[in-house]
From TrEMBL, chain A:
Organism: Candida tenuis (strain ATCC 10573 / BCRC 21748 / CBS 615 / JCM 9827 / NBRC 10315 / NRRL Y-1498 / VKM Y-70) (Yeast)
UniProt similarity note: Belongs to the actin family. ARP4 subfamily.
Function according to Swiss-Prot or TrEMBL: Chromatin interaction component of the NuA4 histone acetyltransferase complex which is involved in transcriptional activation of selected genes principally by acetylation of nucleosomal histone H4 and H2A. The NuA4 complex is also involved in DNA repair. Is required for NuA4 complex integrity. Component of the SWR1 complex which mediates the ATP-dependent exchange of histone H2A for the H2A variant HZT1 leading to transcriptional regulation of selected genes by chromatin remodeling. Component of the INO80 complex which remodels chromatin by shifting nucleosomes and is involved in DNA repair.
Residue ranges of the region described as Disordered: 255-275, 337-356
Protein name, entry field: Actin-related protein 4
Keyword Transcription regulation attached: yes
Primary subcellular site in the record, as a coarse category: nucleus
PROSITE patterns, sorted: ACTINS_2 (PS00432)
Automatic annotation (TrEMBL), chain B:
Name under which the protein is recorded: SWR1-complex protein 4
Listed InterPro entries: DAMP1_SANT-like, Swc4/Dmap1
Region Disordered, residue ranges: 13-33, 155-230, 390-413
Family note: Belongs to the SWC4 family.
Length: 466, 566
């Protein structure tokens, strides 16, 4: 007890080395609670040839007939078999866990449906031997990482941008919003740009090139290709291209300080704003205003429509509203009946009305969520906006957000908090979960299989995993 | 090889006298200790230091031993120990605890301690929810009560409405009348174009104000209208199931209302206030049925008003919806208002100063008595004493009765009366004789000096003057002899700027000064000095009065112009 006492004096911690699992749409993070960084950061993709599955960074090795498949979509597990296999791979082979020794903490986005949550919980209980588990909402974890019980978590991730208010360390589901104008969207914008502006460019991914000689864009690339196994799948090539886009996003993009219009586009296309990027095949391209336009599309997706049809079809108009289905199905008809009734008298809040067809960029999304939050909380929440996620690392994004939010909400004092360390910002939810799961007071929250079976999924999912 | 050897090789004479410290150090050091400490390389190095022995021994052997000891000592044992975070739950977790396994086991056998953090797990105190029957009864009661309330409210509202209508009608009538009159006037005198224009302008203004008023009234109406349906949406009745759900949520989310609303799954059209209202009123019922319910708690539960809460939120909302221009304007207005306040305060202070200044000599009595020099000096003395008394009172608040007798403060109105003057003189004489008596008691008792004799006599003013006698009533005199020409006039205690204007007045009036910066008459006799001082004060007072008058006049002008505009 001595250690518990002395720890309690400092930070109320009691470390039991629980396993933290934070599956994201781009990468999955696994590690021990109490650590300041995940032990394993691995892509949320796997390579499969029908018989064998390969996980981790070795999926980047070109192999014949191996398809690259995603495990998650929108931070929600889609491919259950692969997910379970991936977790088994890391728990058994990499961490060599004795499951009995510690419980597991899994982060989840706020939009997972009750069915998905139930599947996840039951799968974990069934397939792994953890004594207990806990599902934590990702925004709650982020709020714990920052130590701010009341905040607005703006997560600009790979698949989605989500804005969630966290009150007293509990995420508000009804006010939350999500769009897909995020990291993947930027990659697609980049791809669209290549199709338009550099039509003759062959996007050769890194794995194809052995040696290269630098050339400038209109000149053809000069490189010697690598010897590759036959039958490299298209999905592998696409995945490698995605990685290339990822690199370009990291090095090239920069958010303009205000919306790009015809008047100010001049200043962004100046020579000083020109950056060169060398493609893996040695060809270098130069971008100026495009760098800003890409990042601007996060804020004003309306102004940047895709020219390529398949890409355009991928993104429908989104106003960010989320429909989180209730878990108590028997009450639903009641709810619906009332909705129709009241639609005549008072218009319901915009968040529940999906008919409002309107695209919301990042700023509008945040500002709309702010306006739906109860007035008593709005000021404190606006003062604690946490910006996290990989795409928020684009230079000047937080500055642009700050200036736009301040001018949109003159009555509120806006303050943005973004972790300076880039790898911390990408893994913020994991770190927060690590903090949460090493608190002494948290250990009464773990749910065992017995309790789950006894109380039933409804009660546990809604009132225990809050 | 030591430093000595090197010195020998280089043929340098050692100056032993210059190194007394080394000798001392050698003597002082325990030779065995030294040898024990320095062996091999260390000793050679030490020797190379030569005469430059460091005053403090840098190598501390004890420290090393300490570290070594620590290395060698056994590490504190830590044990991976199982614990149960929740009592009555099968879940067992493991954490590291300081102490050996045996010790911990022993401890554990002695006392089965609950988990340290269990005490932080608390629940809110919420009454247990009732069964359906009682709930229905409660709801009926509540409904009846509310209907009564709403009727009352409706009545009050109607009353208000009527009053407003009446007021509006009255105002309208009054305005119509005015308009008519104005219109007539316009027609009657409307020969010249300009006047017609003016009247039409006035009427248009009237129209504007009227429309504003009507807008206000419609706004008020709409506001009320928005309140009414909200109370009517209550029409969606609370079922037993729904209320039970609410109570469950309240229990599991510890009355964090925003989260309860977020997780509320029944109707998406219940507002936070609806939930609160239902919860509080049902709680109130449950508690008041409970025999040992806390009456203060029941009262506080009843004090929740949904309409007030909604209103408060509307106000807050409006506050947040201000545009930046409005915020800036508001801020500038606040700053301006503060400035005005400050100016007004300053003005008030100045005016009161001025009034006291103008007040102090009571003008109700005749000025006759002051026309003689005697009268004036008396007045002056009286004022001086008063002034001093006031100052002293402020300073020490009469905490310690001072040794020298101070004449009692003379009331303003009576200050100049002869009777008081006489009492004052007798006071003075008593004081002086007391002093003399003291002197006598100290010195030779029998010898009564001529001065004393003189003092004992009651002298007339004329005699006093002839003898050159002067009572320094309570003037503070510096000890020793001083020349009157170097005496500082009390009237000179003014600000430099005031003094400057006083000089200009003096030159204007051709009053000779000694010139330059020295402020005294050419012939500084006592009387002349006194007069001069008086004059100085008078001029200062005059200047101040003039300043005050100018200010007042300007103010009057301002007010007049404002009134004129209206």
């Amino acid at each position: 007890m001595a250690s518990a006492n002395s720890n309690a004096n400092v930070y109320g911690g009691d470390e039991i080395n629980a396993i933290i699992l934070d599956p994201g749409s781009l990468s999955t993070r696994i590690g021990y609670a109490g650590d300041d960084f995940p032990k394993i950061i691995t892509p949320s993709y796997y390579a499969a040839n029908g018989k064998k599955h390969i996980f981790g960074d070795s999926i980047n090795v070109p192999r014949a007939d191996f398809d690259i498949k995603p495990i998650l979509k929108d931070s929600v597990i889609e491919d259950w078999d692969a997910a379970i296999e991936q977790y088994h791979h890391y728990f058994d082979k990499e961490l060599a866990l004795d499951y009995k020794e510690q419980p597991i903490f899994i982060t989840e986005p706020i939009w997972t449906s009750a069915k998905q949550r139930q599947t996840l919980v039951e799968n974990i209980y069934e397939k792994f031997d953890f004594p207990a588990l806990y599902l934590g909402r990702a925004p709650t974890c982020v709020s714990f990482q920052q130590g701010r019980p009341n905040c607005l978590v703006v997560n600009i991730g790979h698949d989605t941008v989500s804005v969630t208010a966290v009150i007293d360390g509990i995420s508000l589901l009804k006010n939350s919003m999500r769009t897909h104008y995020s990291g993947q969207y930027l990659s697609d914008q980049l791809y669209d740009l290549f199709l338009n502006k550099f039509p003759s460019l062959t996007l050769d991914a890194k794995y194809k090139i052995r040696t290269k000689t630098p050339t400038k864009y209109p000149e053809p690339p000069v490189f010697t290709p690598r010897e590759l196994p036959k039958n490299i799948t298209k999905s592998f090539d696409d995945y490698q291209k995605e990685l290339l886009f990822h690199e370009m996003k990291e090095t090239l993009l920069e958010a303009p300080d205000k919306q790009i219009t015809d008047e100010n586009s001049e200043s962004y296309s100046k020579d000083e704003n020109r950056r060169a990027f060398e493609l893996p095949n040695g060809q270098s391209i130069e971008l100026a205003i495009e760098r800003y336009e890409m990042a601007d599309s996060l804020f004003e997706p309306n102004n940047y429509s895709f020219t390529n049809e398949t890409l355009a079809n991928k993104y429908s108009v989104e106003n960010g509203s989320l429909t989180i289905d209730s878990n108590q199905d028997d009450y639903r008809p009641l709810k619906r009946a009332r909705k129709n009734e009241s639609n005549q008298s008072t218009p319901p809040p915009a968040a529940t009305e999906p008919s409002v067809a309107e695209t919301r960029g990042l700023t509008q999304l945040i500002s709309h969520v702010l306006s739906t939050i109860d007035i008593d909380l709005r000021a404190s929440v606006a003062h604690n906006i946490i910006v996290t996620g990989g795409a928020s690392l684009i230079p000047q994004v937080t500055e642009r957000l700050y200036s736009e939010l301040s001018s949109l909400n003159p009555g509120l004092k806006i303050r943005l908090h973004a972790v300076g360390n880039s790898s911390e910002r990408v893994n913020q939810a994991w770190i927060g979960a690590s903090v949460l799961a090493s608190l002494g007071t948290f250990h009464q929250m773990w749910v065992t299989k017995e309790e789950y079976d006894e109380a039933g999924p409804d009660k546990i999912l809604n009132q225990r995993f809050r | 090889m030591s430093a000595n050897d090197i010195l020998d090789v280089l043929n340098i004479q050692r100056d032993n006298s210059g190194q007394p410290s080394k000798k001392k150090a050698k003597h002082g050091n325990d030779s065995t200790n030294l040898q024990a400490r320095q062996t091999g390389m260390a000793r050679e190095l030490y020797n190379l230091l030569g005469p430059n022995t460091p005053p403090v021994n840098l190598t501390n052997a004890n420290n090393n031993v300490g570290v070594k000891d620590r290395w060698k000592s056994k590490a504190t044992p830590w044990t991976l120990k199982d614990f149960k975070p929740k009592s009555g739950d099968p879940l067992t977790l493991y954490h590291w605890v300081r102490g050996s396994k045996e010790l911990l086991e022993q401890d554990n056998i002695q006392v089965q301690q609950p988990y340290f953090f269990t005490k932080f797990s608390t629940n809110v105190d919420i009454p247990d929810f009732v069964d359906e029957e009682t709930f229905n009864k409660y709801m009926e009661d509540i409904e009846v009560e509310e209907r009564k309330n709403s009727e009352l409210w409706e009545e009050r509202r109607m009353e208000k409405e009527r009053q407003r209508q009446e007021k509006l009608a009255k105002e309208k009538a009054a305005r119509d009348n005015e308009k008519k009159i104005k219109g007539e006037k316009g027609e009657v005198t409307g020969i010249s174009e300009s006047k017609k224009d003016a009247s039409s302008e006035v009427t248009s203004q009237e129209d504007g104000s009227q429309s504003e008023i009507s807008k206000e009234s419609t706004q008020a109406q709409s506001e009320e209208a928005s309140v009414i349906p909200e109370s009517k949406t209550n029409a969606i009745p609370w079922t037993y199931k729904e209320t039970k759900h609410l109570f469950e949520l309240c229990n599991s989310f510890e009355l964090k209302w925003h989260i309860i609303l977020d997780r509320y799954e029944y109707s998406s059209h219940r507002s936070l206030e609806d939930l609160k209202e239902q919860f509080y009123r049902v709680c109130k019922r449950i508690y008041s049925d409970d025999a040992n319910g806390n009456p203060a708690l029941i009262d506080s539960l009843g004090s929740f008003s949904k309409s007030k809460e909604v209103e408060r939120k509307q106000y807050l909302e409006r506050l947040l919806k201000r545009t930046p221009a409005e915020i800036a304007e508001e801020e500038s207005l606040v700053i301006e208002a503060r400035r005005f306040e400050l100016a007004a305060k300053k003005m008030l202070v100045e005016r009161s100063n001025l009034l006291t200044l103008l007040d102090s000599p009571q003008t109700s009595q005749s000025v006759q008595q002051y026309q003689s020099s005697q009268g004036l000096t008396n007045l002056y003395n009286n004022l001086m004493i008063m002034d001093k008394n006031q100052k002293r009172r402020q300073l020490q608040n009469q905490s310690s009765p001072s040794h020298d007798p101070i004449p009692p403060p003379i009331p303003l109105a009576a200050s100049s009366s002869i009777r008081k003057e006489r009492t004052f003189q007798t006071h003075l004489q008593q004081h002086l004789s007391n002093l003399v008596k003291q002197n006598q008691s100290q010195g030779n008792k029998n010898e009564i000096s001529a001065i004393h004799k003189l003092l004992m006599k009651r002298l007339t003013a004329k005699e006093e003057e002839a003898y050159g006698l002067h009572y320094h009533a309570n003037e503070r005199l510096t000890p020793g002899v001083i020349l009157r020409s170097s005496q500082r006039l009390p009237g000179l205690q003014q600000r430099q700027s005031v003094l400057k204007s006083v000089t200009s007045v003096f030159t204007e009036l051709d009053i000779p000064t000694a010139g330059g910066t020295s402020w005294r008459p050419v012939m500084p006799t006592r009387k002349a000095m006194a007069k001069y001082d008086e004059l100085l004060r008078a001029v200062v007072a005059l200047l101040e009065v003039k300043k005050g008058r100018d200010k007042l006049e300007a103010e009057i002008q301002l007010i007049r112009s404002q009134k004129g505009l209206e």
